[in-house]
Specification:
five-stranded mixed β-sheet, Pyruvate Kinase, Chain: A, domain 1, ATP_synth_F1_gsu, alpha/beta, 5 helices
């Protein structure tokens, strides 16, 4: 049985840990508000742009621009978005496992599937499972993601697709729903998918290109890819902060329960020690008589 000193020391250790988890929860809560506002604000623009370009892709020929061309299924690229730090529950593991599941399930459909990882934790999780498929890793860009960051990643992906290194590009990230709910989301980025015509709906939308079709497509199609990556980074960051806040809140509550149990154990051990001392005193007094 542990001594009183050992139990008291462990109580102190758990209390120190609890202070850390409470502080981390407060920091995550403060970051969550800003990250959530940014993610929610980006949704309408990203969704409208995607809708417009889906309509545009349905009306243009595949050879109008390289990003519209529907090629074979030779090689694919999956862009996985995770975090650089842990202590956020199943945030990193859930999306990393989905990446592994998707690649395993589609190995027969594609000749080869490469993996581009954003975030250190995704790399750590998958390097022993899919190390041969990881072609690039970006670190320390998820917390303060800017549009310029998404622009650099998007341009790299667009160049690779235009050079026909890949026939399809997917992005995989945690979409923010609430502080306790993050939805693992897989989207096809390239080629840009044409919008399916609804049954009975009239095809009334048409576009006028200024100054010309080639110039407009060359400017707006890569921008859609950049916006999709930017939205993914914002959603992933908000989800990370929400998951971390929830995980630290759970850890703090578990620490409180552990402190209660250890305190009870300490009091029982102390009571047993006092009773033992009293018995020894009484026994000594009786032996003197």
């Amino acid at each position: 049985m542990p001594s009183l000193k050992d139990i008291k020391k462990r109580i102190g250790s758990v209390k120190n840990t609890q202070q850390i988890t409470k502080a981390m929860k407060m920091v995550a809560a403060a970051k969550l508000r800003r990250a959530q506002d940014a993610a929610v604000a980006a949704r309408p623009y990203a969704e409208k742009l995607q809708s417009v370009l889906s309509n545009l892709a349905a009306r243009e020929e595949a050879d109008a621009h390289p990003l519209l061309s529907q090629r074979g299924t030779s090689r694919a690229l999956v862009v996985l978005m995770t975090a650089d730090r842990g202590l956020c529950g199943g945030f990193n593991a859930n999306v990393s496992k989905e990446a592994e599941r998707f690649i395993r399930a589609n190995e027969q459909g594609f000749d080869d599937i490469d993996l581009m990882i954003i975030g250190r934790k995704g790399r750590d999780f998958l390097k022993s499972r899919l190390g041969d498929k990881i072609v690039k890793v970006y670190e320390n860009i998820t917390t303060d993601a800017t549009y310029k960051t998404a622009q650099l990643i998007g341009q790299e992906v667009v160049d690779a697709y235009s050079e026909e290194k890949y026939d399809a590009v997917f992005v995989l990230y945690n979409a923010f729903q609430s502080a306790i709910v993050q939805n693992v989301t897989l989207e096809q980025v390239l080629p840009i998918q044409p919008k399916e015509a609804e049954e009975g709906a009239e095809d009334s939308i048409d576009y006028i290109y200024e100054p010309d079709k080639a110039g407009v497509l060359s400017d707006i199609l890569p921008k859609m890819v950049e916006v999709q990556f930017f939205r993914g980074l914002l959603e992933s960051n908000a989800s990370e902060q929400g998951a971390r806040m929830s995980a630290m809140d759970s850890a703090s509550r578990n620490a409180s329960e552990m402190i209660g149990k250890l305190t009870l154990q300490y009091n029982r051990a102390r009571q047993a020690a006092i009773t033992k001392e009293l018995m020894e005193i009484i026994s000594g007094a009786e032996s003197i008589k």
